[in-house]
Design goal:
heterodimer; A: 252 residues; alpha/beta; Rossmann fold; 9 helices; B: 319 residues; mainly alpha; two-stranded antiparallel ribbon; globular
């Protein structure tokens, strides 16, 4: 198992956002987390990525307890994430953004007097990721000037540039037009293979995307795991359909 | 290309100034060069790491008083030793101050630096025996590269050897800072300035990098502060007063914090403008206040921002 969570609870005051969530993700898996608004998806992602410390329970990543160790250390251990609301460095170019990720991964950030421009490893790797995400032609463009879809891609690309073992994507296609969603997912899957990613966890609302790409789906409801099964079983699960999916009609 | 030409011309002009310019104006170049060193450091913290300090006069004061102590009671006259000691002492004081301050951002960071500045100001003002209180301490003439130069008339010393020594220090400081901002470290600082949460998610230890940037800026401020001493031959607590911190922030905004040389230009314009305004009207702060207001409203990118806007019409650059 790459990532395992056992009996996670998270309280905000008296409100219980996670009420005993257990899950595990193994090598080669693409796992989607679904659930209605307020089900605890974001809290779960934030606990798994070390931003929030769980009130109870434990998270282990590659056999190591990582509960609340913070996103920076977790990233260095090999767990990367992207954000629901797109997160970019507005003044940095596409290439600089990816270079920053590579610099962080290689632990070269404290090289005070080295020349970034002459660091060929960093440049080559950043460029490779840019190409992988179709951002090569825009490598010199400041992130703030990118169209929304490219900002989203850059956010995810920076996480991929860390060459993590696992990546957690918080709504990778939110705010993107329906026609672009599949394109983004295809890029993600191709990039995962390319960098040797072991597992992907995504939170996603678009059921077409969820059913098309997931090996396994975890349905959350009121802070509890409602179902944890392959797509076919989820589609047949009446409780999940009633509480999470609603009247889902496949569009493909 | 144009930028390089301008920079080259500026360096040549500064190098030739003692030969052609009136002594009075050459003497004004000395505080300019000292402040330029301070501002290169301050802008690493502000322009690159996104943290605006209102307390860096503290480190200027530490550098200046370190020089006064060394040349006076400790009888160390070598300016090389003084600059190293000033930088070291600046780092020593900055280590805990920075560790506390960088846990906070925006206005809270600014207020904490201001608070530390006030504490040290009061310390220097009240410990009369040690610091000379409001009268300050003499900063005796330092030896340069082992030459005592004691017999030289003061003005000759200042517009001659000391001038070129300051220029050399500024050049080395600028080269080092140029490397720092173009290093992987500099890039990481910019990610933190732009989006700390995203930087953290990439594995960048935000607090640690902010601390390092603060330390470097404090060392620069202390070295610049030590350079301020010899021209006046005296150091006093106003060096540490919070309005002095305000002045260097003003210089940074005046020149433009988004550009590497912006703050250096800001220091130059500030010093000469202040000198001129003071000779014309007694209320220089009134005039400078109006300038500051106009800057913030009409040219948030400072003078460098205005220059960049002229080069690329229609595109707002800077800020």
């Amino acid at each position: 198992m790459i990532l395992r969570a056992e009996g996670l609870r998270k309280f905000y005051g008296k409100f219980c956002a996670l009420d005993g969530v257990s899950l595990s993700v193994g090598a080669g898996e693409f796992v989607s987390i679904i659930g209605p608004n307020g089900a605890g998806k974001s809290t779960l992602i934030n606990v798994l990525t070390g931003v929030l410390r769980p009130s109870a329970g434990r998270v282990s990543f590659r056999g190591r307890d990582v509960g609340g160790i913070g996103p920076a250390r977790l990233a260095r251990l090999g767990m990367a994430r992207s954000f629901q609301l797109v997160q970019i460095f507005p003044e940095l170019t596409v290439l600089e953004t990816l270079q920053a990720a590579v610099v962080a991964r290689l632990g070269r950030g404290t090289r005070l007097f080295a020349s970034l421009a002459r660091d060929r490893d960093v440049h080559a790797e950043a460029l490779e990721v840019a190409e992988l995400f179709g951002l090569g032609a825009r490598r010199g463009v400041p992130a703030r000037q990118l169209p929304q879809g490219d900002k989203k891609l850059l956010d995810v690309a920076a996480a991929f540039a860390l060459r993590p073992h696992i990546i957690l994507l918080d709504e990778p296609t939110s705010g993107v037009s329906t026609s672009d969603k599949t394109a983004i997912m295809e890029i993600l899957v191709a990039a995962s293979r390319r960098i040797g990613l072991q597992a992907i966890i995504q939170v996603e609302h678009d059921m077409d995307i969820v059913f098309a790409y997931s090996d396994r789906i975890i349905a959350l409801h009121q802070g509890k795991v409602l179902a944890d099964a392959p797509p076919a079983a989820i589609q047949a699960d009446q409780r999940v359909i009633d509480t999470v999916i609603g009247r889902w009609v496949p569009t493909r | 290309m144009t930028a390089r030409l301008v920079l080259g011309a500026a360096v040549v002009a500064v190098a030739l100034a003692p030969l052609v310019a009136p002594t009075y104006h050459v003497l004004l170049m000395l505080p300019f060069m000292a402040y330029a060193v301070v501002l290169l450091g301050l802008n690493l913290l502000f322009g690159y790491a996104g943290l605006l300090s209102f307390g860096h006069a503290l480190f200027i004061g530490i550098g200046a008083y370190a020089g006064a102590f060394l040349t006076g009671p400790l009888k160390v006259r070598s300016l090389e030793v003084i600059l190293l000691a000033a930088g070291g002492l600046g780092a020593l004081v900055a280590a805990p101050v920075a560790a506390l301050c960088v846990r906070y951002v925006k206005i809270y960071f600014g207020m904490l630096t201001l608070a530390f500045g006030m504490v040290f100001y009061t310390f220097v003002l009240k410990f009369y025996r040690l610091t000379g209180g409001d009268e300050g301490l003499p900063f005796l003439r330092p030896a340069l590269l082992g030459w005592s130069l004691e017999a030289m008339p003061k003005t000759d010393y200042l517009v001659g050897p000391y001038y070129y020594y300051s220029l050399a220090v500024l050049s080395v400081a600028a080269l080092c800072m140029w490397r720092i901002v173009h290093s992987p470290f500099g890039l990481c600082l910019k990610t933190i300035r732009d989006n700390p949460a995203k930087a953290e998610s990439l594995g960048i230890d935000v607090t640690r990098y902010r601390w390092l940037a603060f330390m470097l800026s404090a060392v620069y401020a202390a070295v610049g502060g030590a350079l301020l001493g010899p021209p006046t031959g005296n150091v006093d607590p106003t060096l540490l007063y919070w309005t002095h911190s305000g002045n260097i922030v003003f210089m940074t905004l005046l020149g433009g914090f988004a550009s590497f040389f912006g703050p250096v230009l800001g220091a130059f314009v500030f010093i000469y403008l202040q000198n001129w305004v003071m000779s014309v009207v007694p209320y220089w702060r009134l005039v400078f206040g109006a300038i500051l207001a106009a800057l913030v409203i009409f040219a948030p990118g400072g003078l460098m921002g205005l220059a960049a806007r002229r080069r690329r019409p229609g595109r707002l650059s800077g800020a």
